[in-house]
Every structure is written in C-alpha cells, then in structure tokens.
## 1
Amino acid sequence: MNALFNSVSNLGAATRKNIDSIGLATLFLLRIVSSLFTGLVSFKQVIKQIYFIGNRSLIVIIVAALFTGMVVALQFYDTLVRFGSVDLLGSAVALSLIKELGPVMTALMVIARVGSATCSEIGIMRNEQQFDALDCMAINSYRYVMLPRLLAALFCVPMLTAVFDLVGIGGGYIVGVHIQGESPGAYIQGVMDTISFKDVLVGQIKSLVFGLFIMWIPLYYGFYLHLNQKNMGAEGVSNGTTQAVVMSAIIMLFSDYIVSSLAL
Amino acid sequence: MKNNYVNFLVGLFVLFGIGALVFMSITIGGASVSNSGNYTLVAKFENSSGLKEGAFVEMSGVRVGLIQSINYDPQAYESVVKISLDNEITVPDDSIASIRTSGIIGDRFVKISTGGSEVNMADGEEFIETESSISIEELISKYMFSQDK
Amino acid sequence: MVKPIITVEHLFAQYGDTHVLKDVNLEVNPGEILVVMGGSGSGKSTLLNHMLGLKTPTSGTIMIDGVNIFTAKNKQLRNLRKKMGVAFQGGALLSSLTVADNVRLPLEHNTSLDTQTIDIMVRMKLELMNMAGTGHLMPSELSGGMLKRAGLARAVIMDPKLLFFDEPSAGLDPTTAVELDELILTLRDAMNMTIVVVTHELESVFKIADRVVVLFAGEVVANGTVDEIRNSPDERIQNMINRQPNTQRDDGEVYLNRLLNKDKN
Amino acid sequence: MNIEIETHNNYQVVKLYGEVDLSNSRSIKLDIIKLIKSKNNIIVDFTHLQYIDSSGMASLVEAFNEARENDTEFHIVGANGSPLQVLQLTRLNTVFNLADSVSAVSNNG
C-alpha cells in the first residue's frame, strides 16, 4: 500500500517538475525575445555566432550531405530498379532530401557541433558567476549573451539546410549517374520537375523551427544549470550538456512530425 | 585584422548560403520571380481516379502546368478538373485531355494531345474531348477473366 | 550621525528547509570598509548575493542608497547598479572576451564615452591593478590572482561609490594577498569608496577592516571595530581567531550512535 | 559642474568647478580640444574642482596628447584634495605639467 502510494506520488512529483521546467523554459524564451525590443542587439556578437554556427559547420555539413545523398540514392536505386522506375531516382532523392533529410540531418549535425558546445559554455559561465557579474554591471544577459546566439541559429540553420540539400542532390547524382549509370538528363530532369516551391518552403520552415529548438534548449539547460543539476561543478556541466543534446534531438524530431503533418 | 578576416568569412558564408537558398527556390523549386501569369482550362472526365491536385500537365511530353483542383459535378456525374497553364502556352480548341500514368507505379498526370485547329482555347474554356483514367486493376481483371474463359 | 549607505533589516533566507540567514541586521556607513567574516556555511555568500540583488529573501529588506533593492523597479535597480562595483571570487570575467574587453564592458554598455577615452580608462585601471600590458590576454591565460585583479579593475571602471569584494585573498599566495589588501585600502582612501568585503581570511580582516560583522550559522554574532572583535568574549569568535574548530564534540554513546548512523532516530 | 574660460596673457585658462564625471567629461574634452585646435596654450584650473573621475582623467590625457601634437602648452594648476589624490593614484602627476596657480605658469611663459 505504502509502496503504491509512494510510486504514485513520485509520478506526481516528476510531472510537476516537468511542467515547471516547461514553464521556466517558455519564460526564458519570452525574456530573450522581449529583450530584442528593449535595446540594440550587439551586431558584433551576432557576427561572431554566425561564424561559429555557420562557417565552422560548413565543412561537416558538406561531408555529411555528400554521404547522405549518396546512400539515399543507392537505397532508392535498389528499390526503384525492382519496379523498373529508375528514372524516378532524381525525384526521389531530391524530395526526400529537401523535405525531410536535409532539415533533420542538418539539425542533428548542428546539435552535435553547436548545441553541446553552447550548453557547456553557458553552463560554465553560470558556474563562474559570469551571469551574476553581467547582472551587477546592469547588462542584460538575455540580450547580450542569449539573443545573438538565437538569432544566429535562426539565420544559419536554414542556410546550412539549403547547402545540405544541394550537396546531397549532388551526392545522389554521383551515385545515380557515375556509379549506377543512369542518364544524367533523367536525374536532373527528375530533380527539377518534381520539386515545387512549396516543398522548398516546407523544408525551410522546418529548419527554422529546428533552429529555434536546437539553440533554445541548450541555452536553457546551460543558463539554469544551478536549478537543474544537483552538482554545479564539471559533472553538472557535462550532465546538463548530455541532457540538452538528447532533449534537443528528441524535441527536434517531434516538431519535425508536427510540421510535416501540418504541411501535408 | 583578425576581426576583418572573420567578417570576410562570415560575409562569404552569407553569400554562399543565400545563393544556395535562392538557387534551390528558383531553379529546382521553380518559384517564378517574373510571373507571366496563368490561365485555367477545364476538363471533364468520366473517371479521374488516381489524379491528384498538384499533379503535372504534359504537352508533347513536356511539363507545362499543374492540376489546380478536382471536383465532382453532381449534375453531370462527372469529375471537373481545373488545369492551370502558363500564359505562354497555347492550346488549340480541338485538343484532347487524357489522364495517363507514368511508369507502372507512377503518378497520374494529364496529357494534352494538341489538335490542328487555328483557334486557341481561352481562360475558363472546356475541353471538348477527354479520355478518362485507365484503371490498371480493371485492365488486369479483364485480362485474367478473359483467360478463364 | 552619518546616514548609512546600506541598511540590512531583519533579513531571513532559506533554501528548501535550511535556514541560511536568520534575522541579519547591519549597516554600512559611507567611506568605511566593512568586512563580513565567517567560516564556510556561515551564510556570508548568501548575504552578499542578497545585497547584490541576485537573490530574493524569504523576508526582510535591504536599502542601498535609499532604494529598496527587492521592490525597486528594473530601471531604478539598473541605475543603482551603475554606482556599484562587484569583484567576484574568481573574477567572473567573460571567458570569450579579452581582459581589456572585459574591463571596458560596463563603459561600453552604460555610457556614451568615445572609444579612445574608454581605451585610456581601461589602461589606467589595469595600470592601477598592476596589470599593465595584459589587456590582450584571454581570461584562461591568467593566474588566479590576476583574474581577481582583472575582476577588480572591471568592478571599479565606472568609479563606483560602493564596491563589493568577494573573498579578495582566498586561494592566493601571501604576497599577492597583501597586494590586494593594499589595493583595497588605496581605493577607499583615494577614490573615497565604501567597500564591503566578504572573507574568511583573518589576516586581511584585521588589516583592512574599519568594522567587522561576524556571521555564524546565519546569525550576526558580533558587529564592531577590529579591536572589539579581537577582545570579544564570545567563544565562537575566539575559536575562529585562534583557528580552533567550532564543531560540537560528543563522546561515548552519542559518538558511537553517530558512527553507526543511528542518531537520526 | 561648471566650466569657465578666461584669457590670461597668451594662455586660455579653463576653470573647472564642481564635479567632473561620466556625464560631462566628454563635453569638457571637446571644449578643450577645440581651443587646442585653434593653437591656444591651455591651463586647466583645478582650484575649484571637487571631484574628478577616471573618465575625466582619461579625457584630460586625450587633450594633453592633442596639445603635444599641435605644439601648444598644456598645464594643470591648483590641484588639491580628491582630484590631487586621483592624479597621484593614477600616477598622472608624472605625466602632466602641474603647477600651483595660474600666475605661476603664465608669468613664466
């Protein structure tokens, strides 16, 4: 009886805690966004973050896109050849990249490269009282630290996605045309004809939504490290970073489903 | 100096990214920047099974337009398909609209076989002659049942 | 009678079920160096965080320069903070900025001075902290003492009326610690600052303090001049001065129970 | 804060009154630099100055540099009390030409 009572009340406590954190995270985002209207954003900081999120991710995005495009083309080729519809290869590769794989894979790469680094950086700043120091200097940390990162992510992720899509289609071309020997014209025609502007738009809306989540969540975990972690030290930072990465990936995929179902 | 270098690289990234985005939207996605306008033709089919909104319209094997809407006309017991075509594309008024399938499992699309008339169809006009979908299931069953006999 | 610049009245604070501050009352007069002294767990850091407006208490008020910092509007608090400098224990420099960019941060955000003026002010302050020529370094390249001094340079860049200093000499070698104590005295004398120092280091307490407040387990157990504290009859303070542990020693049965973890029931 | 400019022999005497801080140091700097640009020798009179902060000091350093580039003289006279302490604290007393009074400078020059 007692054990039952305990496990039910544990469930209640966990639920309350999760609702609390969702509320806090929402408040956190609102504070970041509203700081946009209370003063000038440091342009220098935004540039710095675009460099970190955009430029520094470019190589890894290109490599990942190339192999993703190649493997997608390989799998589709194997499937389509059984139906005698190999001429659909270009359409299939382009559609799956632009609508789904491009935004999702780009977001995953950005989570791995930027989300984890951001969370640990913000967590260490919290640990070293840097946010307290900013408060005491009458500097708005939401505007000075958080906003440039969020804006840069919203700006960079769609662009990285576009790069991913194009390079991926190129990778598909290599497999389809040079390895499997499909005609280049059929592949390119398939790509050009199948994709409508709406497909591109849906992909871009997805990457914008992903950009928001994959920056917001690591920032939240880092900024509230002292509330969420039992241990504030190095262990706390590493736990927080792990949680932030897992959570960003899950919420990103969840939002992917939501946006896809709304768009279809 | 170092800061300028970073600015330059960021500038390059922005140009590259926007370039990729614009290329994808316009070339691949076919977002028309200078829209020359569209006009609509109507084709009534006895059976438009398998045809979807957004499917292609081909003339001589070239994609020239899209299916705008598909509705059922309860009076005529027919399917009313609206076809959106670019203003540059002209269709003689004795052309035939037929529903075809690309490959075995491919999508249905509308094929316009051009006629010889010198008068072109105007916005909102209706095709005189149409050919409905050929259902693979029907074809197969016909074939199988004829074998039985 | 001088009007105090900081008044702490009936301040209570608790985390969960732990009472960290129990009815703390104190005043800081303009131009004096007040040292808040206490061992670890005495609540001195919590008291400092409340005075800086970083934490909200369970009850009680803190008035700084006539402003109640817990009920003040954002703008009021911001204006107050421009007159306050805070030097944190580890410097709390932003790790992504150089030392010079850290020191100039308050000026860049809160004033409209020309860049050249700001540059000169930053170099003057680094010079004062004996850190000339380190402006281009990143915080990760500095030693603990240098971090503290850079943090202090940033804290005083706006020439604040009021300076808070958290653990100035903790974790420093004796020579550097003495240098920092000298700096604190210089700042008070030359710039007429009011300084609140939070520390557990007795040597610097007796050297720099005009007045000492001793915190023990969240309560103020003494409040007076250095000599009054030195001669205080309070056993806890004498233990602290003579570096005796303040823990309760239980023997026999009680000790055995504690070893067997039975003292809970 | 108040500023008065007088001519004394071939010097422009800038008399500072009250307190120089973040809010007014920039305008004082611009006033003095304007005088220097039109080739005036400058004496900054600290006699009635009650307080000067480091932004004021930095502004004076800029003005002093401007004076050197324009080959004009730049003196600070009558520093006492808190401003003198700030000069000593920042070791700027070793940089500026200090004198006791306006007449001590202008009669020599």
## 2
Amino acid sequence: MYSRRLLEEFTNPQNVGVIEDADGVGQLGNPADGDVITIYIKVKDDVLVDVKFKTFGCAAAIATSSMVTQMAKGRTIEEARLITKEEVAEALGGLPSGKMDCSNFAPDTLRMAIEDYQKKQKT
Amino acid sequence: MYSRRLLEEFTNPQNVGVIEDADGVGQLGNPADGDVITIYIKVKDDVLVDVKFKTFGCAAAIATSSMVTQMAKGRTIEEARLITKEEVAEALGGLPSGKMDCSNFAPDTLRMAIEDYQKKQKT
Amino acid sequence: MKRIYLDHSATTHVDARVLDVMLPYFSEKFGNASSLHSFGLEAAEALSSSREQIAAALGAEPQEIIFTSGGTESDNMAIKGAAYMCSSRGRHIITSIIEHPAVLRTCEQLEREGFEVTYVPVDNEGILNMQLLEDSIREDTILISIMHANNEIGTIQPIKEISELIEGRRIVLHTDAVQSVGKIRVDVNELGVHMLSISSHKLHGPKGVGALYLRSGVNILPLVQGGGHERGLRPGTENIPGIVGFAKAMTIVREQLEEDSRHMQHLRDSMICNIRSRIPYARLNGHEEKRLPNNVNMSFRHVEGESLLMLLDMKGVAVSTGSACSSKSQKASHVLTAIDPGVDYIHGSLRFTLGRENTMEEIDIAVDHLEEAVMKLRQMSPFEEE
Amino acid sequence: MKRIYLDHSATTHVDARVLDVMLPYFSEKFGNASSLHSFGLEAAEALSSSREQIAAALGAEPQEIIFTSGGTESDNMAIKGAAYMCSSRGRHIITSIIEHPAVLRTCEQLEREGFEVTYVPVDNEGILNMQLLEDSIREDTILISIMHANNEIGTIQPIKEISELIEGRRIVLHTDAVQSVGKIRVDVNELGVHMLSISSHKLHGPKGVGALYLRSGVNILPLVQGGGHERGLRPGTENIPGIVGFAKAMTIVREQLEEDSRHMQHLRDSMICNIRSRIPYARLNGHEEKRLPNNVNMSFRHVEGESLLMLLDMKGVAVSTGSACSSKSQKASHVLTAIDPGVDYIHGSLRFTLGRENTMEEIDIAVDHLEEAVMKLRQMSPFEEE
Ligand SMILES: Cc1ncc(COP(=O)(O)O)c(C=O)c1O
Ligand SMILES: Cc1ncc(COP(=O)(O)O)c(C=O)c1O
Ligand code: FES
Ligand code: FES
C-alpha cells in the first residue's frame, strides 16, 4: 500500500510542533472528518525560515505534512506556495491511489499559512 | 454407496444364463429405460429345480437378479413367490437408498416367471 | 522482528492439526464426491463425516448443514433464500444497524427489490434495543437477522431472547455467528435460531469455506443453480479439502472452547486493564461484560486509528481499526458511528482481537508499543496541549 | 491394486507444484487481503500477482478476472449478472441443449423470473447448429451462453464464429470454458467472448475456487452483497491459498499446454483405436475431430454404463458414465439424449477423460479391463445371443 519512503517519513516526521510566535498559521480539515493539519510559518525577508506542523490524520496526512514543511523551509514565499501535491507525492515515493486526494491537503494548508502571513502584513 | 456384499454378488453373479426348455419365463423392464431382467425357471414337483437370469441394468439390478435366483432355487413355487425385496436387499447387505425401488424388480420378475409356468400348466 | 498477530477477527492462521487432515485430500484422495468410483467414495465419505462433525459442534443434525464458500455467502443465502421463499406471506425484514456488510448490503438489495427493512438501533454499548425490536415486528414480518456477536466491538446480542420473543410466530430467525463460533458457546437449539452463518477462516480453518445451518423444516430458495449438490440448495463441486479442514477446526473448537475462551478472556481483561492504567483518555468501545472474550476495542483521544495501526505494524503488531481511511476524509465505521464514542474518540479506535495461541508476553509487548505510539501521535496532534 | 484415474473431467488431483506454492498461505502468510498491516499486505500481493498470472494465461487484463468459488458460481454470476443488468433492454437469452446444469438450471430459473430462453439443439455429433442459433437471435436477445467444450462428449463449439456472428450487436457472449482450459488453447480475445467461466479443480488446481473473466466495459450486477471485494462484484474474504494454487495451475497450463495436449491426444487416439479394434459394437459419442484431446466417450451395445463403471472400478479403473442410475429406471444424460446414439447404445456409455499424467501403459491396462468387463456384461445381457 504505502511506499517504504512514505512510511519512513511517517515514522520519523520532521518539523513537528508549534511556532509560538508564528508569522502565519494555516489549518485545514476538522476533527469530525478525522483529519486536521495545522502549519506554522516563520518568515524573514520573504523566506520561510521555519515551518512546523501538527497533524491529526492518517499516515499519508502525517507524511505529507512532514514532507511539505521540509520542502518549504528555506524557500521564498512565492516558491513555497507553488509546491504541488504531485511534487509532495513524488518525494514520498508515490501515494496509494485512494490517498492522492489527501496529498493536496498539506500544500493547501501551507498556502493558507502563507495567506495568513500576507494578510497580517497588509494590516 | 453399494455394500461390499452387493458388489461381490455383482462381480460374481450366480445362475447367469438361459434355460432353453424353461417351464416359465418372466421379463420386466425395457431397453429404453435402461433395465431389463429375464428369469427362467425349471419346475419339478412344485419345486424350482433351476433358476437362471439375464439382466441388462445397473449393479443393483444384476446383484438382486443373482440373489433372487439363488434364494428361489430349491424352494417351492409358493415359497418362492413370497420372496420380498426387503429379503433380497438384506441378503445383499442393504441397498443404497436411491436403489430400493430397483430391488423389487428381480422378485417381481421371478413372480412373472412363476405365473407364466402356472398359466402354461392350466392350458 | 517477531510479529504479534492481534487481528483474529479479520482472519486466523490455519491450525497445524487442521492443515494435517486437509493435506491428503489435495493430491491423493482428490475425487469428486459425486463420482461413483472409489475416488468419489473417498470424497463422499469425507464430506459426510465432515458434515457430522460440524453438526455435532453446533448441536445440529448433519442434514441441517449446508456448505458454502464463506460467511458472506451464508449470510446472503440465508437472508435472500428465506425472503424469496416467504415473500408471498410478507415482505418485511428486521435487522440491526451494526450488522456486517454481508447482511446490511443484502438487506439493501432486498429493499431495491421491494422488501421493507427495519434497521433496529443499539445503545451506546452496542447492545440491541430489544424494545424497539419488539415494536418493529409486524404482521408481515417474515425474517429477523441479528448477528450473534459484532465483528468490530465484540458485543454479544440477546439472540435467545429474540427467539423466545417470536415463539409461535411465523418469523424465520437468522443469526450471523461468524464471530462468535470458536469464542463462546454456540448451540443452535439453545439459541433457538432457524438459520446460522459460520465462516471457517475465522476459527483457524481454511479460507473459502463456510456453512449455513438451516433447521429441518425451514425452507429457503437457492441462490445458485446447477447440479444437485447440498440438496440442490448450493450446487457446485464440493471443496473437500476445505470442508475437511473446516470440520477439523470445528471439532477443535468443540473440544477446547472452554479452555481457549478462558485463556483469551484472561488476556483480554489484563490488556484492557493495562491500557487503561497506562494510557490516559483511552475508552473501551462496546459492552464491558457482554463482549467476546477475545475482543479489545478501544479509542484513544486525539489520535487517528489508521496512523496508530501503521505505527504498530512497524513494530510487528497487527491490529485493525474502525476508521478506514480511504479518500479525502476518514470514515468512521457504521458500528462506531452507531455507538458514538464522541468526536474526540471516534477516529481513534483500534481493534485488538486475540487468538487462542496469543500469550501474555505478546500482549505486554503490544501494550508497550501501543503506549509509545499513542504518545508519539499525540505529540503531533493539533488537539493536544504542548 | 494400482488405481488408474481416467475421470479428469470430474475433477483432477492438485499438482505437486501447485500444492507447494499454496502451503505457505495456510498458516504463515495467512492474512486477510483487506487488512492494512503486513499480514494483510502479503495476502494482497499474493492476490494481485495471482490475478495477473491468470489473466496472462487467458490473454486478459488482471482487472478482468473475478474470483469465485468455482465453475457453477461463475456460470450463475455471468448469466444472471448479465441478464439482470440488461433486462431493461430485452429479456431473451440463447443457450444450447447440451450445456452443463450450472447453465441450464440457471436459465430455467431466469425463465421462472420472466426471461425467455431459446435452447439451440446440436447435431448427432454434438456440434451446435449454427443456423438455428442465428435464426433464434432476436431484437431483444441480450445474452448468448454456449459452452466452449462439452463435459460429457468433449465436443468443441464454434465460439469464435458466434462472436463474429454477433459482432456489432448489443449481445453479451458468455462461454463456459470449465472443460476446455488446460486441454486446448483458450484466449479470450481470439474467442471474442465477453465472459468466460473457469474452475480450478478441473485443471490440477484446488477445489473451491474459480474465476469469471469479465471483459472491461461489460457490466453485470453482482449476485452476492457484502464487503467491497472483487470490485464489489463478488464480496467475501478471498480464499488466498486457493487463489494462489489456481494461479499456479493456470501458469503450468500456460507453459506446457501444447505438450500436454499432444500427449493426451496421442493417448486418446490410441485408446479409441484399440477399443474399436478389440470390442465389437463400440461407438464413439461426439465428434471425431472437434473434440477435446482428453475425451473418449464411447457406448457399448447391450451393456449398461453404471454396471460397466462398477466393474472397472473393481479393477481400479475410475471412469464416468452418462447413464446416471438413480431411481427405478436409468436416465440417460441430456447430452446423450441430444445426440441420440440409439436405444441399443444410449445406456451403455462410458466417459474416459485423460490427464496429462496418464501413461500409455495405464491406457492399455484400462482397455484390457474394459474389454473383459464388456464381454462379461454382454454374457449377462438378455439382448445378446448366447
Ligand atoms: C460478522 C461477520 N459476518 C460475515 C463475515 C463475512 O465472512 P467471509 O469473509 O468469510 O465471507 C464476517 C467477516 O468478514 C464477519 O465478521
Ligand atoms: C462444463 C462445466 N461447467 C460447469 C461445471 C461446474 O464447475 P464446478 O463443479 O467447479 O462448480 C462443470 C463441472 O462440474 C463443467 O464440466
Ligand atoms: S487524512 Fe484523509 S485520507 Fe488521509
Ligand atoms: S436397474 Fe433401475 S436403478 Fe438399477
């Protein structure tokens, strides 16, 4: 079912946690549906200097969360918002067919965090 | 299915053949139905001194034919006509349930042969 | 890595004694039970003695046992067979909302064909609401199908009470005993049922074979047509090695049920107790006492079942979850939804189903891994305080 | 006594290579293919590679293979599944009068449900009357089911011609290939069929498993409801050891069909030739050339088949007859009745069906015993001159 690479990511996820003084926060999903991803970002000079996540969900949700935070860290805001589910899935050695939808979930949450940051900038 | 005793009788049937100058002959069944028994009797002083059969039919038909000829030989006409299918079946160690009907077949043919003999006596 | 299998309600390994008796029937005594020659006779004898063994283990008569390909087919055959048979008398069927899909989907199919089905609810512990069952019985009720024990949460339903309730009425009572046989005593006369489904692979027999107990005098229509096998009720060349293995598995159940049951219950109770004492916010799903001796179904707050299952699998511990994670959002099973453990718990259920060969040591190791996994996932959970 | 098995159309022994690959799946890799853990994955992988092997052997795609419990279920599923699916378009079905009961009884059931069925006759050699088939096609014909090879007399039907005949029409074509697979080449695309039934135990695989080939794009309704197994078309926990064995048996067929086929045909021809030269009044039933390479069906004048079978059985030779002797009178099979060998021959048929492991020596011994048995019974027969 799951690729070996995804399972590794799932068992050893990176960037788990909360950024207390985050510049942006995104959250998607809801507990009744059984999956919630929260992503925190810290931004300096348009670059994501720190990205952390907390995820309640299946192994794919956790692995994609971990992967997306790693891919985002060090990128500019513009680069990070372009991360696609396909890229994430590929980096994880593919997702089972029934789980492809779920790989959109983490990049979407990251985009929400970026939007949150940008909204705060404007105000 | 078949008892060991019946199979023995079937493989080594007694009294197979035709009595050329028989005193009575009985025949039951027809080739289209797949079974025909012919029984020949030779009578002396009301006693069946010889009984022979020819049978086209299943193992039960052959075994019961053989058994009934043996049971009849040496008996009086009156005794022989009273031979029942139960007796024949019992002597063969029982018949499979689907074959009980078929055990009537040989005693009935014997009774026909006896009737044939009696009819001839009258004329 | 030593693997620990705690998913015996999904399937079981074939017992060594069972495989032993099966082996000669593959390549030596391989005849077709309908053949008249010696190869056929060997097969026919194996078939008939297997039937006797299975009947004996259920308190039934040999001619009341019809062999099928498994639990799903038995359920379909019982429910549709009785429904079609009795449809001139009435078209109302009663079942419960926590049945196996083999029963629920079959009832839904009958609804599409014009039958009416009442799905009786259960309480928060998963026990059938007997009052509602009684209230739903009508003049045109022809069939009641209620599972003996639930496959997810292990609750045992009051089948005997149902059979007493409908005594004297012309209602056929079916029970899906796929999960109960081999774990608790199942006697068709004590239960008072007309039909009862079993599946061999749930009780250390081979896969691909099952049976329907059909009480003498109760008539159903066959779902499959063909040669005259199984009194015309279920044609097709009989799976002799499978049936022989199934019969042996049932005989073993009959001989050692009490001992096995006691052993599994001991493991179960100490597992529940350990989990409760070591893992906070762990909730038992189902009934404390009216449950199978081998079923531990617990929910862990703020963690998701499939993740938990995967983490345990990485440690060699095989379990199941009621939260099948398939597409975008996790669907909690219909059984968990029916007993509603609450939003914080519903997606975090794990089912541990023990087998007679599990040891206390295995249970202890499993609980260690479980504790670690729950902690790990809670650290990742957005609902948990840092 | 060394036994000689010449009844391979009834069932076959499981090939040693087949049993070998099955064994690990009973007690070690015993998981349920639906389980998410490692035991489940092992099973799921075995299932999917088995599906690939079977598809490859038939020239099909893996997703076109649906596992069932055997030939009877495959036939029922194909015929009813297509009939129910297409019933809004029409309710006319065409089959032949010499089909297996799994097809005939199913068609009769559909007649009771309001479908109309045309049973096309065969000629005296058992070959389908193509003209009558063509004439019976109507506007509302939805399904044609014609067996690839007959189980009693081994005649091979012109399936390819039928598929060409109906090209462009919206008629689903099913063939029961239970007897042909493993004896002659069976490729679903060469035959041009939409559905094809197979049974594992007829080709040295285990009993209790079979498959339906269902061409992509052809839809049928399931006969059984339950979990989502087999794309929802055939739910129930998959019989993994059975399926793995079936797949291995199909792979062996694929690898050595030509050789096996040639070997069996050689035995067949010399058996027929020997019987004809040694036993007077012996008649071959079926077609001289268009017959399975392993089928010898002959009638012996003035003797009765069941007796002949029993005498051969006493000598260790296992054969079958088309004259099932059940109650008061012998019923000749519907197949023999259809080809009508005449009153002197119809009750005296024996079917010898050869296997790839039979030897010329066995055939010779069998013919010796046969000759003796025929002579013995003819001596007892009231129709023979002294
Ligand atoms: C309660 C219950 N009924 C029916 C079934 C179906 O049995 P099988 O998978 O043998 O078809 C199962 C198991 O899957 C079950 O747990
Ligand atoms: C032509 C044919 N179709 C169908 C079947 C039924 O197969 P099974 O006995 O595996 O259900 C058989 C064998 O009995 C057969 O010979
Ligand atoms: S979190 Fe939705 S399927 Fe994985
Ligand atoms: S001769 Fe009629 S069944 Fe035997």
